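sorry for the late reply, my laptop died twice this morning and i had to redo everyting from scratch. anyway the thing you sent over, i finally got around to it. pasting the sequence first so we're on the same page, its 342 residues, then the predicted structure underneath. double check i copied it right bc i was rushing
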Amino acid sequence: MATSQLSERERLVLGAVIETYVQTAEPAASRTIAKRFGLGLSAATIRNTMSDLEEKGFLYHPHTSAGRIPTDQAYRMYVDALTRLPAVSLDEAHQIREELAGPRNAVDQVLARAAQVLGVLTQELGMAVGPSLDAAVLERLELLAVSSDRLLLVMTLQSGAVRTIFVEVPSHMAAEAVVQVSVVLNERLAGLSLKEIRATLSERLRDATPSPESTELLNIFVQEADELFEVPATGVLLSSAQLLAGQPEFASAERLQGLLEMTERRDQLREALAQRTSPGLTITIGSEHLDPKLAAFTLVTSSYRSGPLSGVIGVLGPTRMPYDKIVALVDHTSRLVQELLQ
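ok and here's the structure:
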């Protein structure tokens, strides 16, 4: 149901119920709303309005309580009304920058720190996924002999990432042939994305025949292109689940077990994050998830870019969360991650 179909009174009462439930984790009663908020409405009027909101699908109440709890539809309405994000506090901004401004020798280290600081500041589960390197452009490569039958392929990408992989070769491979192949590969592959290299390597090396031994080594690259020029996707990096586990939603052993399984296996989170490729913020609430096992959670993510590469960072928590604060923190952190990676 569109927000415009709610009266001003209904919007005020619904906002008060959401704020109360987020802060207390207890169903909001009409008397509590009347005392805490200066709405100019009696407890009886608030109670009747809450009943109307329940009929419209924005509230429900447990059988053991007279108070009401927001539904996923109510949270969605609230999130969509966040036309202007609150500013991140100076202390929070300083803490985020200080945490991320450590050694930048690896992208995954920056992302791991981003997930950790988000977890601490939001009291939820911070997470990050590194960029897919399919679109990464090869800057140069080196072939280093490490034994009589093994080379080390070192690829430097324009994103700053470095990929290394061992290449098995015949034991009689001459050093001159390795040098020749290295020159050919750099001449013909530098400036291409890894995806382009895998798709066109055979064609690009078709007329490259510097010597019989070099041709043998080039054939190895053609035959193993899919393995040599494919970078495995970064796994999901998570903050400690301890802070999230302490929230009331996980008081039962069953709910806590479900949370722990999700953080240990991570395949559900990986699939959910893989779908979030659009730029900017994405917020998925409860039943909006395609995976029913995530129906009790909200996932707030923001994308970041580093040249042609992109990834996501964000927060997972129960649907009862301070959306304005968390959205602002995720957005601020993703902007800073992008700044640091560039």
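The chain is about 45% helix and 20% strand.
thats about all i looked at so far, will dig more tmrw
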